Structure formats: structure tokens, C-alpha cells
Amino acid sequence: MGSGAAVSGGLRISADKETGVAVVTLDRPARLNAIDLPTASELASCWKELRFDDTVRAVVLTGAGERAFCTGLDRDADVPQPNSPYMMDDPLLGIGPKANDLWKPVIAAVRGMACGGAFYLLGESEFIVADPSATFFDPHTTHGMVSAYESVHMTHRMPYGESARMALMGTAERISARRAYEIGLVSELTAPGGALEAAVSCAAVIASYPPDALQGTVRALWAAQEAARAQAFAQAPALIALGNLPVERQAELFAGRRGRGYRVR
């Protein structure tokens, strides 16, 4: 990849050879950085490419614009599903660094909304740095959908009661950046507009260390939780097949609740 920037569809990637830090930016601000199928494919390709770029030793993941880090799967994405409760195609399962066998440290810099499918990315980051504008919520239950993979990811990042409350309260409530910091979901709360700079600063320090030691440490940290995560993920397809409302009904609930108020805590 080298120095400079690369831009493709919904993703922007820049790398600094001197610091060893790459910044991966979800670049669909008009869609609140929601992930469509091309962007999902680009994310997977990005992580695979970074595996082979020895000039990159740490990565920062962020979203373009001020309104959102990422709002999950784009609702306009057409994802056909097998007519079976035992098989399911989830295009977001392959968008994270760990899903693509990348063991270089990844730090998430969050500004604005992070919800739903964004948790696939946050769940596979080493830690999260947040702007005061950051909010976290899970809209699935509000729209008649099972929060399965998302809840598994978040239960490994925050206390069970907090992840359960977020999943069950749906769009009625959002976790503020301050509350996210208090419960350990966020490791650093910055001044307004400072999340990306703070995350890059952390990444530069990390990237200055021997890469094999870093990658071994990331692998060890992930090993501490991956068995439980894999067991939980194995149950997700059936739970989603049993609990999700038909797509048409989901769309009705989404349209009916658009614009309704919510509480930030």
C-alpha cells in the first residue's frame, strides 16, 4: 500500500510509512457510512491487503463526516437469503480485521452514531477512542429483528447488563460517549473533534514497537474470548431465522418509527 491515499467506492485508505500507521475511513457520509455490498467487499479486501504490507504496523478505523461512524448494513442492500432456518448469508460477517486474519492492532475512532452492524467493526477492534458526539445503540429489536451477532460482539466489550439494555431498548435509547467511557466500551473520551487525532497518536506509539510482539499480543488477547464468541455465533443463524419478522414488516416498522425521539444516557 505504501504512503499516500487510496480511494475506492465506500472506503478511503491512507498510510504513513514513517509512523507505520494506516487510516481506514468509511467514506459514505451521505448514507451515514452505512455499509453496502461493495463496501463490505472493499473492507474485506483492505484487511487482506494490510496483512501483506509490512510498512503498516497499526491501523486506525474511522468514518467520514460528523454525523456517524457507521450505521450498519445499508437498508437498500439486496441480500437474498436461503429458504432455510439453518443457513443464512450475512454480508457483515466478513468485514472485520479478525475475520480476515489480520492481527495488526486496530483502533476505532468514533464520531457521531455507531449502531447495529457497526458493532462487527468495533467488536474486532482492539479499543475505541470516542468524540463527545459519539452515541451507541442497537436498532434491531425496534424493527422486528434479532440482535444476534451484534449482541455477542458487545457482550464481549461491555458489562452484560449494559449490552442487554442497549439491545433490548432498541432505538428508544442511546448510550452517550461519556456513559460508554464509564462502562469501558470506550477507552478514551477526547475533546470535540479530537477522536481521530488521539487514535492516530496511540497507533503511532504502538507501531513503534516490534511488530511480531504486537501481533502476538493481539492474537493472545483475541484467544481469550474467541472460543465463547464462536459458540455464540454458531447459534445466531437459527435465532435470526426464528425471530426476525418478514422483511416487508421490518420495513414498515422502520418507516413508522423514523423521526421519533430517543433518550441519551
Automatic annotation (TrEMBL):
Listed InterPro entries: ClpP/crotonase-like_dom_sf, Enoyl-CoA_hydra/iso
Organism, scientific name: Streptomyces chiangmaiensis
Name listed for the protein in its UniProt record: Enoyl-CoA hydratase/isomerase family protein
Pfam families: ECH_1
Membrane-crossing residue ranges in chain numbering: none
Gene3D superfamilies in UniProt: 2-enoyl-CoA Hydratase, Chain A, domain 1
Tree of life domain: Bacteria
